[in-house]
Amino acid sequence: MDYQERFRIWKEKLPDGSPLRAQLSEIEGDEKEIRERFIQDLKFGTAGLRGIVGAGTNCMNELTVGRATQGIASYIRMQGEEAMKKGVIIAHDPRHFSKEFSELAAGILAEAGIRVFTFPDLRPTPELAFLIRKLHTISGINITASHNPKEYNGYKAYWEDGCQVSSTIADGMMKEIEKVDYFTGIRRGDVEELKKRGMITVLGPEYDRMYLDEVEGLAIHSGDELDLSIPIVYTPLNGAGSLPFSTMMADRGFQNFHIVPEQKDPDPDFSTVGYPNPEDPKAFRLSEELGKKLGAELLMATDPDSDRFAIELLADDGTYIPLNGNQTGYLLVNYILEGHRDAGTLPENGAMVKSIVTSTMSTEIARAYGVRMFESLTGFKNICGRIPEVEKMGYRYLFGYEESVGYAACPKIRDKDGISAGMLVAEAAAYYKKQGRTLWQELEELFRQYGWYSELEPNIILKGVEGAERIGRMMTWLRANLPAEVAGYKVDKVIDYKDGFEDIPPSNVLRFFLENGSWFAVRPSGTEPKIKFYFYTKQASKAEADSVNGKIRDAVLDKIGSVR
Question: Residue 158 has what pLDDT?
């Protein structure tokens, strides 16, 4: 069935008065728009669903969300009565239709005989991940598009281990989803009636407390070891982080903590920021303005579902400097290991995990403390998915992270967690301040000790179906034209992960290692319309590292950008 036929069927079967049908009437005759919306079913994979909100099989709407949930309900029913009794926990972020989609999912699952747990309002993704294991549910669902622009929404699916679903489980769910007809296969029950029958339970504030207790239990230093008067500014970017983050900071005793007022409350349009990604320094504009008024030494931000976390530091010259995810990772890796060492609690068999596209400087830091750094594919289903594996090998998990501002400090929270990362960074800033040092000075000291690393992470955004096709051509071209040298440096080794490599499973990633110790990686994003690049080098000085890395970046982007 082609996209025009899908369009015709939807327009014919959607009822009069339906907002989705009205949208389709508006685009009738627009070949490109119809193709974008109906070229395929919105893909369900290990990242769940993610797409622009609107009418169409390739968009997020009540039919695509309902179909996915009905298929997941069938998959859970196939696991047996015990799985149905364990149930599913559902959360949502502040985006347009997030609450409505979460209620739709609850109604479908409960109508299918599967117990459901929900929240009275929006909650952070890491809290959902934690409570899956705490409540021993079979699955979890979060309606969120994380840091994507306001036009997007998404659907993250988790399994009983607290991680996002593995490829095997995602494939099983997908088989059931494909059996569901958009117009006749979705069976939604009345949510209020299902609550009365005990099929849907709304969780109380004690469950929020359980999550925060787990986060606060990660503390390394406390009390008189910290200067709790340190001025700190935080923004939840109009997302789910405001209440849990401020509660956590108050619990820890921070006396000079401030939230950006314009970004404190939920806003599905993200009116004050536009693109609510803390990885983008532009997201810190209002934080910087408030920070300068207050003399803040640390600016912190989480994305709308509070799993991503980024910081800016007050430098010696009074300016705020944004740290990339690698640099924040260096500080956290060193602070955690240094703290355990000084307290005499550093295990002989300590382990950390980073993604294959994350800087190897953290590996060097871990090695200096006698800790082994494992690697995984990108995504926290892979990073946290290694926790049981490393524990089975006799190691004690201490920390996991990836360069895209994601950090997992707690083995009981099997996803990236901006709340716990924020607590540890704030604690580190207060700890070093007590000793007369800043986080910025600490980072510079790490570079002096381990070498000057440069990290560049550009990407090429290519939206829509045509963009996705071009990204595919870029990867195909690169595999067919592996370079022998880049920017005058010989390529010593290439790792292609398409069939897996050593203990890393298959993925669409290429990694190149150069004779001067530099390396770079290329991969399409799994959740956004972009192809991502990662460039790393270590040199004798910051200026030299930035220069060498810049030349390698320019050479690679020039070549691959010519692929049409």
Answer: 97
Report pLDDT for 465: 85
What is the value of pTM for the model shown?
0.95
Fold of 453-560: TATA-Binding Protein (3.30.310)
DSSP helix/strand/coil, 308:
strand
Query: How many other β-carbons are positioned within 10 Å of the β-carbon of residue 359?
Result: 24
Report pLDDT digits (tens) over 503-543.
Answer: 999 999 999 999 999 999 999 988 788 999 999 999 999 99
Architecture of domain 40-203: 3-Layer(aba) Sandwich (3.40)
**At 159, which helix (H) or strand (E)?**
strand 152-159
Phi and psi based region of residue 136 (left: phi greater than 0; alpha: psi -120 to 50; beta: remaining):
left
Q: How would you write 47-100 as a 3-class SS string?
A: CEEEEEECCCCCCECHHHHHHHHHHHHHHHHHCCHHHHHHCEEEEECCCCCHHH
Answer yes or no: same fold for 212-449 and 453-560. Answer: no
pLDDT number for residue 44: 86
Which residues in the chain land under pLDDT 70? none
Q: Which residues sit opposite 320 in a β-bridge?
A: 314
Residue 512's H or E segment, with its range, is: strand 510-514
Distances (CA, A) of 159 to 104, 141, 166: 19, 9, 8
Q: Where are the domains of the chain?
A: 40-203, 212-449, 453-560
One of 74, 139, 146, 355 is an active-site residue; which one?
146
The whole-number pLDDT of residue 46 equals 72
Instruction: Classify residue 513 by its DSSP letter.
Output: E
CA distances from 139 to 48, 163, 192 (A): 13, 9, 22
525 annotated active-site = no
Q: How far is CA 174 from CA 67, 94, 407, in A?
A: 10, 27, 29
CATH topology of domain 212-449: Alpha-D-Glucose-1,6-Bisphosphate; Chain A, domain 3 (3.40.120)
Residue-by-residue DSSP string for 409-458: --TTS-S--HHHHHHHHHHHHHHHHHTT--HHHHHHHHHHHH-EEEEE--
Sign of CA dihedral 445, 450, 451, 455: negative
* Residue carrying structure tokens 């709304």: 202
